[in-house]
Amino acid sequence: MDIQTIAGAPAVGICGSGVVDLLAGIVKAGIVDKTGRLQKDHPRVRDGEGGLEYYVCEGTTGDIVFTQHDIRNLQLAKGAIASGWYLLMDTLGVSMDELQSVYIAGAFGNYLDLEASQFLGLFPPVSKRRVAFVGNAAGVGAQMALIDVGARRRMAKVRDLTGFLDLATDKRFLDVFAARLGFAEV
Question: Nearest 5°: CA angle at 83, between 130 and 72?
Fold first, then answer.
């Protein structure tokens, strides 16, 4: 297993993008099954204080582990994110082939590995050339709106074309969410 730390510093924990990479790796390796359950028969899987855990490495203050609870939390987040893009595309009647671009915003998104994220189902399975990591789009957009009248006009046009999909009240959400909690079989 290849473990890297930010700036080569001693390991203190697992960063957000590292959690995605780690989970994708242990799912691919069969250490986590399609339901999200850690498999006891792997030498790095052990009983911990809170149940099963995957030993990652020695950290500065003790063992760094990835727990069954961590996996479940990431599964819930993955299920919600995947449900969001699926229901949006379904509502608009857009197929995967028709999807021209996927924009991934936010500082966290900039550090995600696209292949690992798509393997887990976080993002639509489109080619890399159709995906753009745009960083802090909200912050940059706010700056543009403050200093550029033309940008404000373009934003107003986009706003007028934008709709709202309330996942909390969408009758399809629970079924779609439940169907997206699992992982691909390898």
Answer: 110
CA distance 2 to 180: 28
Q: How many CA atoms lie within 13 A of 148 on its CB side?
A: 13
In terms of phi and psi (left: phi > 0; alpha: psi -120 to 50; beta: otherwise), the region of 93 is left
Polymer length in residues for the chain: 186
Residue 150, exposed/middle/buried by CB under 10 A (0-12, 13-18, 19+)? exposed
* pLDDT tens digits for range 12-67: 999 888 999 999 999 999 999 999 999 999 999 999 999 999 999 999 999 999 99
* pLDDT digit string, tens, across residues 131-177: 999 999 999 999 999 999 999 999 999 999 999 999 999 999 999 99
Q: Which two tokens stand for residue 37?
A: 């359950």
d(CA 122, CA 125): 9
